[in-house]
Amino acid sequence: MKVRILDEAEQDLVEGFRFYETREAGLGDYFLDSLSSDIDSLCLYAGIHSVHFGYHRLLSKRFPFAIYYKVDSKTASVWAVLDCRQDPARLPE
Question: Domains of the chain by range and CATH?
Answer without folding.
Answer: 2-85 (3.30.2310.20)
